[in-house]
Here is the input.
Amino acid sequence: MRKLTRYQLTRSDRHLWRLAWPLMLTNLTVPLLGLVDTAVLGHLESPLYLGAVAVGANLFSILYWSFGFMRMGTTGLAAQAYGRRDATAQAALLLRSLLLALAIAMILIALQAPLIRIGLTLMNPGSEVAELAAEYAAIRIWSAPAVLAQYTLVGWLIGCQLPRGPMVMLIAANGMNIVLDVLFVTLLGWNSRGVALATVMAEYSAAGLGLWLVWQRLPDHRASFRSLLGHLSDYLALIRVNRYLMVRTIALLLVLAFFTAQGARQGEVILAANAVLLTFLLVISNGLDGFANAAEALVGQAVGVGSHQRFLVACRTAARWSLIGSLVLTVLFVTGGHWLIGLLTSIEEVRASARQFLPWLWLLPFTAVWGYLFDGIFIGATRTRDMQNTMLFSALVVFLPVWWLTTSWGNHGLWFALITLMLARAGSMATVFMVRTRNRSWFRHE
Here is the structure.
């Protein structure tokens, strides 16, 4: 058995897994927030609280992940600096990204009233759900500084190939969220308000722990702090590098928000059932993203040192394990989907509705994994414009027309459109990848 394992796991496999397993474990703890929230609220008497948190959480997915470029852009730039062995560039990138994150967070808090109002208008839930969702959002907005700081800290740690840092900070924070969810909702009866408060407290715990971990990795930070601050032009350059990622991220999250909004228009039961199934989509994306995150670090390092061979090895290794991971998740959802739905909600009408649409979930791991993989490759190589263009194509040219043509199918049409979005992302990014690999343009400055 030992000989077989050594034969199967090449050096590149072991390197990938050294980075991937902590990131995979970290990522899998992220949807625990949603899983626990759903499980706690799903066992209350009314589906209104579950629907309200689904709407509110989607609002903050759009709001916060609109700035998810801070994580992705930081990873790619940090990985390339790591490949060049440029410690000063790594430290400067971290500090400037954190200051930019704090500035953006303060703006979001100042604009909270119109942001929440516009978001709920676009989501257009029922009046009772809207009232509870607004209450949830008014609490969640105060986590903005912690959330955006986490994006930067996690991105930097991944790029510098320190994957256990994100694992420690997020596992600790999610553990706190689980305890607080049970305390605030189950014991104190605060319902959706308790879920929001638990999430805010968990986010600040993660950010504080992340700052402490990074502080330990920067032993010379005091002597060089002033020089690392840089000038306004440095921050503008950082924003310019990430502008394409911002557009791409907004487009993706608007698709998911549109999906939730269309489910809400079909009634509270469909909204709650889709919330349960989308929780499993988070498990898929965050689990398989462990390989994509490892690809970000390895591809960025290869680009930093200018090695085409190392670039190809990183891509092939990540692709192989991403495929295996998607097949494992497919088997899990086919064999255990009904049980998992029952675990998340005891409301029989929501269970029945979710089981009706369960076959769509079976298709998601294999169709979605390739988009996640190429995201990792493109982030590591900082080819963010390609990510923007392929996402816009997939959303505007594929997803929306397919949804419009299948509106008569009801919620089945909505899920079919989501599957076609995943396939369009995979196909368009694969095309760009093959073109760039053939002409070796990954290493050119653009």
The first helix runs from residue 2 to 8. The two ends are 48 Å apart (CA to CA). The chain has one domain: 11-443.
